[in-house]
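To whoever is on call:

I kicked off a structure prediction for a single chain this morning and the downstream step that reads the tokens threw a length-mismatch warning. I double-checked the sequence; it's 69 residues and nothing unusual in it as far as I can see. Pasting both halves so you can look.
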Amino acid sequence: MNMKLKLARVAKNWSQQELAERVEVTRQTIGLIEKGQFNPSLQLCIRIARVFGKTLDQLFWEVNENEQK
């Protein structure tokens, strides 16, 4: 599940449809990304990050606890 993406979307008060329109994909695609059932292309990740004014790391990078040590 991509909670970072969902939290960023909710913080902007955007629906899945609104985000989808901004990055030119379907609402279903955004829903699947948020559920962790679809891995977006790098180009789509970049478009999503740009509409939020965030980096790819801020929205998509999952830090494993073992990697932090």
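Update from on-call: the warning came from a stale cache, not from the record. Cleared it. Sanity check on the structure: The radius of gyration is 12 Å.
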